Amino acid sequence: MDETAGAVPPPVEVPSGRGRVVMQVRWSDVDLFGHVNNAAFLRFLDDARFTLFPRMGVDELGVTTASLLVVVKHEIDYLAPLRFRQAPVVVEVWVPRLGRSSVDFAYEVLDGEAPGAVVALRARSRMVQLDRATHTPRAFTDEERTTFAACPGPTPELRPW
């Protein structure tokens, strides 16, 4: 039996600067219509983001830090359905914008690992860093900025309302 089944593997850097996380579709991700549910896609995005940026509000041991990085907005275009299967999906993550205390993450969920795989989802999340004690915005440190700057990329093209 594979002891890594269900575990999120370590990220892989891709030449474009995007972080790349390969993950399995779980049976619990699929809804009654036979495709990955929209809430499961959000979990894919969260899992990939925390895999690539593991210190967002927690230290190396998982203990919460003096700051909180919270989601204030998601924009998602569902482009193609994903169904339950054994082949993994790929979530690519990059940082198109870095502000004083906010950061945007962009994502593409790909239907497999092969070059040219169909993009099933394209999304963007904005997160704001807050001071844990005051819950007011806190500027990123130079170290935090360097971490986010390691995965640069363009703003994703999302469909207008």
Descriptive account of the structure:
The chain has helices at 38-52, 142-149, and strands at residues 12-13, 19-23, 67-78, 89-98, 102-110, 119-131. The protein starts with 11 loop residues before the first strand and ends in a 12-residue tail after the last helix. A six-stranded antiparallel sheet has the order 1-2-4-5-6-3. It is an alpha+beta fold and 161 residues long. The radius of gyration is 16 Å and the shape is globular. Strand 4 and strand 5 form a beta hairpin. It is built from two helices and six strands, in the order E-E-H-E-E-E-E-H.
Strand and helix layout:
Layout: E1 12-13, E2 19-23, H1 38-52, E3 67-78, E4 89-98, E5 102-110, E6 119-131, H2 142-149
Antiparallel strand pairs: 1-2, 2-4, 3-6, 4-5, 5-6
Helix content: 10-25%
Strand content: 25-35%
Please identify the structural class as seen in this structure: alpha+beta
Low-confidence stretches are 1-6, 8-15
Order of helices and strands: EEHEEEEH
User: Termini distance?
Assistant: 46 Å
Which value, in Å, is the CA radius of gyration? Answer: 16 Å
Shape: globular
Lateral arrangement of strands in the main beta sheet: 1-2-4-5-6-3
Profile the largest sheet: 6 strands, antiparallel
What is the mean predicted local confidence, pLDDT? 86
Number of separate strands:
6
Count of separate DSSP helical elements: 2
